[in-house]
Amino acid sequence: MSTARRHHYIPQSYLAAFTDTGTKDGQFWVMEVKSGDCFFTSPKNVGVARDFNRIDVDGQAIDALESVLASFEGKAVEAIRKVLKKQTFPSAKESNVILNFVCLLAVRNPQSRKTVNKAKEQVRHILGEILVSDPRTFEHHMSKAEEAGYISNTNASYEEMKKFVEERRYRPEFHPQDNSRSEFKIFDKLLPILGKRTWSLFLTPENGPEFICSDHPVTLVWKGGRSGPIGFGLRQTEVFIPLGRKVGLYGTFEDPLLPEVNLRAEAVAALNTRTEAGAERHVFSCLKTFNVIHEGHIREVVCDSPKRPSGPFDTLKA
């Protein structure tokens, strides 16, 4: 059996709910949020990265984690599909599975991984600069590293290593396995926090606009338009994720809403704007057009050309 190397950090089965057929073989419009370029494709071609879930463990296939996650994602999407069909709040068991799924999407994505790796890279640069800050410090740590077997004898002089470090002639690399280990630690801390929120289903108008999705679909914002640093454990914040074209999941700590809430068109457009703002690269829409809030008003975004003249959302209709 072949080894999977193309790993979907946004499951195809989840994105299927936003396609024209409701299956992962269906298609939807994809818009690049920075350029505004559009194309029509299926879930298999988006939300994917090579070896994203790779592990290198003796006795395990490199795609073992990918297989385990795929099994869980299948159960989660099955629970989501029941919610989409009934449009009623899920049972306690289904809610638990769905929240685990939401938590995974929140912490395991390229956007978060890049941020964490960038911080790790800065730490390594600082440690390198400390190492070559003084010849005695350098010789001491090199000797300790050799004794521990981390490095073999090197003929590089202190002056050569100092120049090498200070000119940053190196680039730290981070293995997906290490990223996954860190992400699951964050997952364990975040899941109970999500469980403390009160959750509601958001339903779009019967003949109104629909939800879009993105490659980073779990959005977290302050209530009342407040700005500044934010975290999932802070009060006066809202979490939202679209579950399908007509159903979304909303969570808050205070002022809980009803289990099912019928939205007006303005609210759907506002949530779509949120989804777009949280995207790393792409937003997905079953329809060629979708609604957002632009300059305080509902505007229709049109996905009708492979190349658009300037920035995102410049093809707008009143």
Low-pLDDT ranges: 307-318
Question: What can be said about the biggest beta sheet?
Answer: 5 strands, mixed
Distance from N terminus to C terminus (CA atoms, Å) equals 53 Å
Total helices: the number is 8
- In round numbers, the mean pLDDT is 91
Bulk shape? elongated
List the helices and strands in order.
EHEEEHHHHHHEEEEEEHEEEE
State which percent range the strand residues make up.
Answer: 15-25%
Number of strands: 14
Identify the strand order in the major beta sheet: 7-8-9-5-10
Class computed from helices, strands and strand pairing:
alpha+beta
| Helix proportion | 25-40%
Radius of gyration: 23 Å
Keywords:
single chain; 318 residues; alpha+beta; 4-stranded antiparallel beta sheet; elongated; disordered C terminus
Q: Explain this structure to me?
A:
By secondary structure, the chain is of the alpha+beta class. The protein has a domain at 6-89 and 196-317. It is built from eight helices and 14 strands. The chain has helices at 12-15, 64-86, 92-107, 110-131, 135-147, 158-166, 176-195, 265-278; strands at residues 6-8, 28-32, 38-41, 48-50, 198-203, 213-214, 219-222, 237-242, 247-252, 260-262, 282-285, 289-294, 297-302, 316-317. Strands 7-8-9-5-10 form a five-stranded mixed sheet, covered by helices on one side. A four-stranded antiparallel sheet has the order 3-2-11-6, covered by helices on one side. Helix 2 (64-86) crosses helix 3 (92-107) and helix 3 crosses helix 7 (176-195). Residues 307-318 have low confidence and may be disordered.
